[in-house]
Amino acid sequence: MTWNPLDWSLIDGAIPNIILVLGFAALVALAVSGLPHWWTVRLPCALVAAAVLTVLVKFTIDDWWQPWPDGLPDEVASWVGLAVLALCLAVARLVPAAGAPMRWRTRLGVIGLAVVVVVMASSQVNRFYQEYPTLRAMLSPETHALPTGRDPNTVAVPPGKTLSEVWKRPADLPEKGTLSSVPIPGTKSGFQARDAYVYLPPAYYTSPRPLLPVLVLMAGQPGEPADWVNSGALQTTMDSFAAAHDGLAPIVVVADETGSTWGNSLCMNSRIAQAQTYLADDVPNWIKDHLQTGTGRGAWSIGGLSLGGTCSLQLAVNAPQVYGSFLDISGQQEPTLGSHEQTVQEAFGGDEAAFNAVDPLHVMARQRFPDTAAAFVVGNSDGEFGPQQQKVYNAAVQAGMKAKFETVPGGHDWNTFRAGLANNVPWLAQQTGLIR
């Protein structure tokens, strides 16, 4: 364990296990009381109320609100249920008995016990998704101003060579790359996107400047671009690759494909948004206007996790002139708002032909992509997205793509997402002419 509490693990080791023990102890303390009618009235009412509220929460998320297509996992719902139970028990304890006023210290103690249980449940949900490995991952990342100006002296990839084969490490190479937070407007699409993040590797800050490949990366839903920076360990992953390759690494632009935390643009041009135009035109045009990068589809990749993974597949087959390779981590077999019928109705007014025109499986069934490289990654315990990824991979192979399929330890969680990116940065660098 490091000396800095910000770097203590919230996933493994002592901290989450201590929280788990304290949480269950607090739950037992809440459930045991000497109040009048506790065992015959108050406790049964709290249990029934907690059960009803938990079912209502799951119904609201899965069947009514549907903020994300895949619903609330049963394990997560169980931890939510325990938190709700703690709150119900606290209410039952705080209702004063006739003729027996409760002291303020007792009230604070009951509230404190409920808070401990809620923290325990939150910790276990975090362990399930592995989204925040440390407290530091919850903090806003350190960002720098995006460098302006162009270097007239550049190093490009010569025919038959890779950039690393002609690159010479300069003496003044920075130790690490930088992150910048920037707006990328929907100039052509009208899409209202949140600020993107740009990772520039150390070699970008040297002269002559190497014309590095580009990776456009997307988060899932619910989510935001900062997820890749905080939970996805983007800068650590890219800096590690750069350190092993004399400062060379892909430029990464984490773009916003949803427009809001709970939004789902489907990454299509539809009644919902012109999201495909944003990712195929606005984002690449902004990158070309503001950064010096490699040119041509061979130097450009797109990737993402979950919804972002599905989106990367969609852009690769619907805008192959822009992206020559893609990384699909735990994506779905088709864009969805929850069901196929709902998606077609809301996005295309029920027009199946309009959906099929841009749906990846239909596009790959009628068109070949021999010059596109594809990597599919999924957690080995992901029973929902694993079969979907396998189906899409098979379709990509049939469409002539240079495709590979990889499983990593984990489910539909950040352990899988982080590993999916880290394992495939070398592969992306090979596809885009950075390394051999």
UniProtKB/TrEMBL annotation:
Enumerate the Pfam families for this protein: Esterase
Q: Which UniProt keywords apply?
A: Hydrolase, Membrane, Transmembrane, Transmembrane helix
| InterPro entries assigned | AB_hydrolase_fold, Esterase-like, Mycobacterial_A85_antigen
The regions listed as transmembrane in this protein's record are 14-32, 39-61, 76-96, 108-129
This entry's Gene Ontology molecular function terms read: acyltransferase activity, transferring groups other than amino-acyl groups; hydrolase activity
Protein name (Swiss-Prot/TrEMBL): Alpha/beta hydrolase-fold protein
Supply the source organism for this entry. Answer: Kitasatospora camelliae
